[in-house]
Write a structure and sequence with these properties.
Blueprint (H helix, E strand, L loop, with lengths): L13 H19 L9 E4 L6 E5 L13 E5 L5 E4 L7 H10 L5 E5 L2 H8 L9 H7 L2 E4 L7 H11 L6 E4 L3 E6 L2 H23 L9 H8 L7
Parallel strand pairs: 6-7
Antiparallel strand pairs: 1-2, 1-5, 2-3, 3-4, 5-8, 7-8
This protein binds zinc ion.
């Protein structure tokens, strides 16, 4: 979907306005849920297969976003088409994720604490409950690259390219979670950290192996829509 003529810096076209409202809501939820400190993390979304996305602007607080805190950015070259003149410094991460996967319409980048800590210590995040399997699925880890760089963005996007992974942990930094819509991207991110919390707790109890019964994963894999 082209972004269309008549876009001004002050007004986003209607489908983007609706997406902004959804992103404002999940930004507040993410901070309330402790998935990021307000000043960290960034969010984006696009109408299905559109060639531009709304992205949170630089130096915004995720629990205090307003429609003025979003930039409309063209995916092919990152040019700002409307809205805030300065998109997030993690813009490359968002652009590369959309370029890697045509089915991705929302990207959520947060700094969930246990997710990052466990991975930094070399503990894989385990899928223990049915929600973990359904919402999170395979977790992949991107090697450390400096925040805001194209190298980090490419590292993360390559890990989702085959369509079998939607939740990437950025080493020593945060997570990059993708989905076909904003709501599912947020659910995946919440459940990713929930899986990390569960993994941490079972490690404290001395368990190093328990995961959800593999037959559930097989059931999810066998259904194109992932429904269980
Ligand atoms: Zn970050």
């Amino acid at each position: 979907m082209p972004y269309g003529d008549g876009v001004t810096r002050d007004a986003l076209p209607p489908p983007y306005g609706e997406l902004v409202a959804e992103l404002v809501a999940i930004g507040r939820r993410a901070v309330t849920a402790g998935l990021v400190i307000g000043s960290g993390g960034n969010l984006s979304a696009r109408p299905p297969r559109a060639d531009a996305a709304v992205v949170t602007a630089a130096e915004t607080w995720l629990d205090d976003l307003t429609p003025a805190d979003f930039s409309l950015v063209r995916l092919v070259d990152g040019e700002v088409l409307a809205g805030h003149a300065e998109p997030t410094t993690e813009l490359p991460l968002h652009l590369e994720n959309y370029r890697a996967r045509p089915d991705v319409n929302a990207v959520v980048h947060l700094h969930p604490q246990l997710c990052v800590l466990l991975t930094a210590l070399g503990y894989p995040i385990r899928l223990i409950t049915t929600d973990h399997v359904y919402y999170v699925g395979e977790v992949r880890v991107a090697r450390y690259r400096h925040p805001g760089t194209v190298e980090l963005a490419r590292e993360a996007a390559e890990l989702i390219e085959d369509g079998r992974c939607n939740c990437v942990v950025l080493s020593h930094h945060g997570c990059s979670v993708v989905a076909p819509n904003v709501g599912l991207a947020y659910r995946r991110a919440v459940n990713l950290e929930e899986a990390a919390v569960a993994t941490y707790r079972v490690l404290l109890l001395g368990d190093t192996a328990t995961v959800c019964p593999p037959e559930l994963q097989a059931r999810v894999d066998s259904r194109p829509d992932g429904a269980v």
